[in-house]
Fold:
Amino acid sequence: MALASSLLALAGCAGGAGMTLFGAGSGVAMGTGVDYTLNGIAYRTFTASMPQMRRATLKSLADMDIAVTKDEKQENGWIIEAAANERTFSIELQKLTERTTRMRVVANDGIFFKDRSTETEIITQTSDALDRAASHNKAAKS
Structure:
């Protein structure tokens, strides 16, 4: 009971603080390397440059048949917005170093709900696209 009360108390201040939700049965994707804030936003850090991440993200969205509505450079990264089947997606790519980028994905399903499953799939597909691009580059150099 104390844990539930603590989580409710923290829910209002978790926004950008990067607090993650842990616990059995909480719906957190185990083993995927995807973390979630208390308010349902998925994020993951990749060892990939900003240009690599942007290309992989756009490729993943295209492969998933999700229409990009905004692709805009920001001071320290990119904002990509997209839409599909009454859901809107906001993807932030934040440059941490020249070879490290943090991806933050928000999938809104209506006004009040997040679609964690689709957030996770976008991150997973982006990771796969990065792996395929790296394999292709290695094969081309051989």
Remarks:
- The longest strand covers residues 87-97.
